[in-house]
Design goal:
Layout: E1 4-6, H1 24-35, E2 42-44, H2 52-59, H3 62-73, E3 77-79, E4 81-86, H4 90-111, E5 116-117, H5 139-150, E6 156-160, H6 167-173, E7 179-186, E8 208-213, H7 219-237, E9 241-246, H8 263-280, E10 285-289, H9 295-309
Parallel strand pairs: 1-2, 1-5, 5-10, 6-7, 6-9, 7-8, 9-10
Antiparallel strand pairs: 3-4
The protein binds zinc ion.
């Protein structure tokens, strides 16, 4: 059974009126978990992992964390970009997203469960020293680093299926071969990165993979990218754990994505990933919520996703 981790602090990251990355997204995602029949597996306010601040300092820097903390304490303002408003609880929410993801990663290792973390703010656009695209701390990068250094995991595979390219995650790992970053995303599109020829740098060459999709693409192209490319890449890499940057903003109802993916396709994608994890990674998959801005589209997609995470 997939355990679902969330924290009430995530509601208090206030982005202001009219911002698409809003607290109601959490309720929609939890509604999706409930629709899938997993309400009893929701863990609210789990203790943040004791390695939280150390991993944030490693992936970003202690100075960057302090800057966000101080800006957040100063109240409602923009942080680094027009896309990134913060409020008094934003630092605590972003920090709790990382801490909850690490707690979920530890549970994945110890309990052999496949956790889904319903957190906000999201993380995959956050660069080492720059917040962008509604993201502050790169949560999935922190989880990948933790698995490498604390859990004896040699190879981590990150699959990012948010409609936007995860520039932050790619940049953090593009010179390494121990964390593979693969993404399917609309291209060209925000944030501008994710071209097919971005394949990694130096020792990391061949360990970054970008699969661009066209505006308006739907289930056929989306699932073909998974079946014909992602599954093969995972089989070749044989990771010890798979992390998912689970954005549901390619859903046909999404106001930002401009794609036509159905909720059923997210279920199919998830089952394919779980099957590859069974082959290589002792079934280990950890999923972190990224984007998804239509509330009904998000709820329906999350329902299919968590059902897929429970796939045996
Ligand atoms: Zn997105």
């Amino acid at each position: 059974m997939p355990h679902v981790y969330t924290n009430r602090i995530f509601h208090r990251h206030d982005t202001g009126i009219g911002h698409p990355e809003r607290p109601a997204r959490l309720d929609a995602a939890i509604d999706g978990v409930t629709r899938a029949g997993f309400a009893s597996s929701i863990v609210t306010d789990a203790a943040l992992h004791p390695d939280t601040d150390r991993l944030i300092a490693k992936v970003h820097s202690a100075d960057y964390a302090r800057e966000l903390d101080e800006s957040s304490r100063a109240g409602m303002r923009l942080f680094h970009s027009l896309d990134n408003p913060i409020s008094s609880a934003s630092f605590s929410a972003a920090r709790a997203a990382v801490g909850t993801a690490l707690t979920a990663a530890a549970a994945m290792m110890d309990e052999r469960e496949r956790p889904f973390v319903v957190a906000r703010p999201p993380g995959h656009h956050a660069e080492r020293l720059t917040a962008m695209g509604f993201c502050f701390f790169n949560t999935i990068a922190c989880a990948a680093e933790w698995l490498r250094e604390q859990a004896g995991i040699e190879r981590v595979f990150i699959f990012d299926f948010d409609v936007h390219h995860g520039n932050g995650t790619q940049h953090l790992f593009e010179e390494r071969d121990d964390v593979y970053y693969a993404s399917i995303h609309r291209y060209p599109f925000y944030p501008g990165t994710g071209a097919i020829d971005e394949i990694g740098i130096g020792k990391g060459r061949g360990f970054t993979r970008n699969i661009p999709l066209d505006a308006g693409d739907g289930d056929v192209k989306f699932l073909r990218a998974v079946e014909d490319e992602i599954v093969g890449i995972i089989d070749d890499y044989a990771p010890n754990a798979i992390l998912l940057s689970s954005g549901f903003d390619a859903h046909r109802r999404d106001p930002l994505g401009g794609m036509r993916v159905s909720e059923e396709a997210y279920g199919e994608l998830t089952r394919r990933v779980v099957e590859t994890a069974e082959r290589h990674a002792n079934g280990r998959v950890l999923s972190l919520l990224e984007g998804g801005y239509d509330l009904e589209g998000l709820a329906a997609s999350v329902a299919e996703h968590v059902r897929g995470m429970g796939h045996e």
